[in-house]
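Support request, priority: normal
Reporter: lab tech (M.K.)
Component: structure prediction queue

Hi team, I submitted a job for Secreted protein from Humibacillus xanthopallidus yesterday, and the status page still shows it as pending. I've pasted the exact input below so you can check whether something in the sequence is tripping the parser. The sequence length should be 262 residues. Please let me know if I need to resubmit or if it's stuck on your end.
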Amino acid sequence: MRTSTPFRRALPLVALLAVVGPAAACGQASPSGTATPAGGGTSTGGTATSADAPAPTDPTDGAASSGAGASASGHGVRLEATFAIGFPEQPTDPGVRKKSGVVVTYTLTREGGGAGELVAYDVVPDGLGSAGLPPDVNPEHAWVYANGTAVRISKQGFASAPGTTFVAAPTIGARVIPAGGSLQGRAYAVSPAELDVPGAEFSAPRAPLPPGSSAWEFCVQVGDRLPGMRPSAVGQGVLEAPVRAPEGDELVCTPAVTLASP
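Reply from support: The job had stalled in the queue. We restarted it manually and it finished. Here are the results:
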């Protein structure tokens, strides 16, 4: 079985193109997918207590404490995720103080023998308006927004806001989920959670996060590999793909798990 591991940043990419568009008001609707996995798949959840998940003592090694696990299926893949209190691996500069938060380690595995390649839109820049991935894109970055009483950590794209026009199509990073193998990755969100969604050029959920919530869920957008996707210079195996919102069961989400705050 062939396994793909998280990429490491490579040489800088070409300069990014500017994006123009009115600061249109964004909708509040959540993208497709709920705490119950889309597509009628099965799911399992877990609970972690403060005794189960002590905070690590070394904030520079990216280590995470034991925590809670959850899984989901959708769009021909199975998502298995582990939630833990820990520190991010990025940035790698040892002089940068890292904040404790929720670390998600996840694996995506193809289910069945469907034709064609599937990708995960899981290389998410801090903003979605550029026509290329920035050379310092953080592979752990994910959006953070409310889904009911849970905090959702999500790697996905969003639809552009009504009336917004881009000089060039905005870009997100995607990686191929190997047939007969798996794709692994990490996501991080600071705790207590802070809202993190793209700018007003995109329709994204902007409701306040549930105060004091200890319920967390993780989502990742998957889809077919499209002809317009091209290799990126930011890391091995990363494709640059046009940003789009998930459709149907493309946003695969774990059920919420309970995790004690650091």
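Residues 13 and 135 are 5 Å apart (CA to CA). Residues 68-87+99-258 form one domain. Let us know if anything else looks off. Ticket resolved.
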